[in-house]
Amino acid sequence: MTNELIYSGKAKDLMTTDNPEILKMVYKDQATALNGKRKEQIVGKGRVNHQISNLIFDYLKQKGIETHLVQNLSETEQLVKKVEIIPLEVVLRNVVAGSFARKFGQRVGQTLQTPIIEYYFKNDALDDPAINISQATALKLVSLAEIQTIEAMTNTVNQLLTELFNQIGIDLVDFKLEFGRYRGRLILADEFSPDNCRLWDQKSHASLDKDVFRQNQGDLVTVYQEVLQRLDQTIGGQ
Ligand code: C5P
Question: Which residues form the SAICAR synthetase/ADE2 N-terminal domain (predicted)?
């Protein structure tokens, strides 16, 4: 298999394979904060994120959500469908935290009356600015019909994963998704791991996600492994 690096992200690399419709995704041992301005190597992070994302994407697939995941190759590598990525980060919030708390002067931890969906334009040079639906459609990043599908899929993912995390004593506070076009459909791309969501332990209220790194609260891999272990016990054997 000839693998040519086509994209090097903050936490993952993407490479070509012999099949033009399939790419290889490699999870890296790198943690970043402040949109890449703070960077650290953390041994074991790539492996644990890969395992968590696989479990979640397999679970979502069973529940009818199509994802780009094709097959695992190793502890840090997987084959994924080559999609045309939509340059939007789709954030759903159930509970006030992070930038929403800062931006609107809200108390962290308040449950929102209804989940909120926000969009950010994926652009490192511009620091991923917030973008609304009329801006995103006027700039032809996405069509109105696609946005409707994205919203419906994001709400379904939220319902499924809120319930799943609830079963393992964790509140799903917020998360980020990315979508791609594949053979005329929209499918879930990228990953779902504690790098792109907030998970709070229901008993201790401790963060079980990248806030541990952002706020220097301890060892990130130990915390991610705790999430993996709980998920594995609940859905690992399915
Ligand atoms: O920082 P903020 O509160 O806006 O983040 C909301 C959610 O989106 C968090 O779970 C965060 O980890 C995720 N996120 C992400 N990638 C970004 C920005 C936010 O995964 N570039």
Answer: 6-230
